[in-house]
Amino acid sequence: MKSNLQDREMFYAEPIYRPPSEAYSLLVQATVGCSSAAAGRCYFCSSYIFQQKIPGKRFRIRPTAEILEDIEIGYEHYGDIVKKIFLLDSNALIIKTPELLKIVEKCYDTFPRLTQVACYACCEDILRKSDAELEQLSQAGLNLVFIGLESGDQEVLDLINKGVTVQDQIDSVIKANAAGIRTSVTSIIGLGGRKLYHQHAVNTGKAVSQMNPTFFASLTLMVVPGTPMEEMIRKGEFELVTDPLEIIRELELMIQNIDVPGPVEFRTNHASNYLPLRGTLPKDKAALLSTIQDALRDPTRLRSEAMRGL
Ligand code: SF4
């Protein structure tokens, strides 16, 4: 007999973002929007705009009962093929631990072939939880968190109103790693503009060195229309790095300053980047830098401006 859940759709508050590596994951809307955007932080981010302009994307934590029901609906639609689940939106780790445990446990109880539950996290979401809470979540199967470092330079973080310290970002990754939760950290090339590009690259490399995350990915800044960053550019308060070769040199400087025990899986596979790179640090550091040198000698290897973001 057909279950009445088959007639129901999972709830999604669109538009939705997820990491490239979660392309085949079942997406479950646990929170909507971003608590940092609700606090007016992160001047470059589209979540800032969503918070202001799209009532349905304003930050909130969905009731646990609704999330659990969505997981059941997901099973009715996708059954045993689901191996990975990603909890939307921008920082589902903000959910109080007892509720988050119910959600993660429900995921594994429902999908027999599930191997991973992941979510985005702000660094304060991690720091707010005790070591014991993080270990409980890890043991329940929340085994990957995505954290936006953006920059390892405090002046750049203050410029974009990230609202956190570099040290808090470093501590949060070390804390999650220690609890057995894998960490995927992202930085944004170009975020220091022309003025701060050198310290942004050097200090991001140094911060990643202290974090030693499981994965590290770099994106390249793309200015979102309507954000405070666009306004800063218009007023001359932020000078965008527009030359792709300067962006690649910044990437090179950052990698030169990464000195990790590893292994750290490094990627620049995001569509915003000019040069896709892939390697394991520290083993592949020389090869990555060599690929960058090749691209600097032959810029035709770079993704064209028209293809960025696609
Ligand atoms: S950058 Fe991340 S933490 Fe900041 S507003 Fe955007 S989604 Fe939220």
Please provide a written account of the structure.
The chain has 310 residues and is of the alpha/beta class. It folds into 2 domains: 1-121, no CATH class; 148-299, Transcription Regulator spoIIAA, CATH 3.30.750. It has helices at residues 35-38, 46-53, 64-78, 97-110, 123-128, 131-140, 154-159, 166-178, 197-211, 228-234, 244-256, 285-297; strands spanning 26-29, 31-32, 60-61, 84-88, 116-121, 142-150, 182-189, 215-220, 264-267, 278-281. The strands form 2 sheets. It has an 8-stranded mixed β-sheet with strand order 1-4-5-6-7-8-9-10. It has a two-stranded antiparallel ribbon with strand order 2-3. Helix 4 (97-110) links the parallel strand 4 and strand 5. Helix 4 (97-110) packs parallel to helix 6 (131-140) and helix 9 packs parallel to helix 11. The chain is globular, with a radius of gyration of 20 Å. The chain binds iron/sulfur cluster. Iron/sulfur cluster (SF4) is lined by residues 34, 36-37, 41-42, 45, 47-48, 90, 122, 148.
